[in-house]
Write a structure and sequence with these properties.
Pfam families: 7tm_1. This is NK2R protein. It is a multi-pass membrane protein. GO terms for molecular function: substance K receptor activity. It is built from four helices and two strands; from the N terminus they run ααααββ. By secondary structure, it is mainly alpha-helical. It has a single domain, classed as Rhodopsin 7-helix transmembrane proteins (Rhopdopsin 7-helix transmembrane proteins). Strands 1-2 form a two-stranded antiparallel ribbon. A hairpin with a 2-residue loop joins strand 1 and strand 2. The longest helix has 34 residues. The protein is elongated and about 65 Å long.
Length: 139
C-alpha cells in the first residue's frame, strides 16, 4: 500500500499519508514484537538478553502509540473534510510535521518503559520484567 500511494500522484491525499504512517508503524510491530512475545509467553523464559529486553519494552509500545495517533489523525482529517468541506485541505508540509510529531511523541511516551526493564531470576528462570521505582509490589 505504501508503494502504491507514493508512486501514484493522484492518490496522494492527507488520509493516505496517515495510512502510510500507520502501515510503517505496524510493520516493525509484526517483525519485532509478535515472534518474541509468542516465544516468551509460550515458554515463560527470556532468552534474548538485557539489551533486547529494553528494546522490547520500548519499541513495540512506541509503534502502538504511532498506530493509535495515526488513526486519530485520519479521523480528524476526515472530520474536517466532512464538517468543513469548503476549507482548504492540509498541505504536504503540514502532513509531514503532524506525522513527525506523532512519531516523536510516541517514542517520548514509550521512553519510561525503556528505563526500568530488568532481567530477573525466578526459580532459576530468566524473566524480562519492568521494575518501576518505589513499587510496593502492587500492579
Amino acid at each position: 500500500i505504501t508503494c502504491i500511494i507514493l508512486t501514484h500522484r493522484r492518490i496522494r491525499i492527507a488520509t493516505n499519508y496517515f495510512i502510510v504512517s500507520l502501515a510503517l508503524s505496524e510493520l516493525p510491530m509484526s517483525a519485532f514484537d509478535a515472534i518474541f512475545n509468542f516465544l516468551y509467553a509460550s515458554h515463560n523464559v527470556w532468552h534474548f538478553g538485557e539489551e533486547f529486553c529494553r528494546f522490547q519494552n520500548r519499541f513495540p509500545i512506541a509503534t502502538i502509540f504511532v498506530s493509535i495517533h495515526s488513526v486519530r489523525a485520519v479521523a480528524a482529517e476526515r472530520y474536517m473534510a466532512i464538517m468543513h468541506p469548503l476549507k482548504p485541505r492540509l498541505a504536504a508540509g503540514s502532513i509531514r510535521v503532524i506525522t513527525g510529531i506523532t512519531w516523536l511523541v510516541a517514542f517520548g511516551l514509550a521512553f519510561p518503559r525503556c528505563s526500568y526493564p530488568e532481567i530477573t531470576m525466578d526459580d532459576g528462570t530468566m524473566r524480562c520484567v519492568v521494575v518501576w521505582p518505589d513499587d510496593t509490589g502492587s500492579k
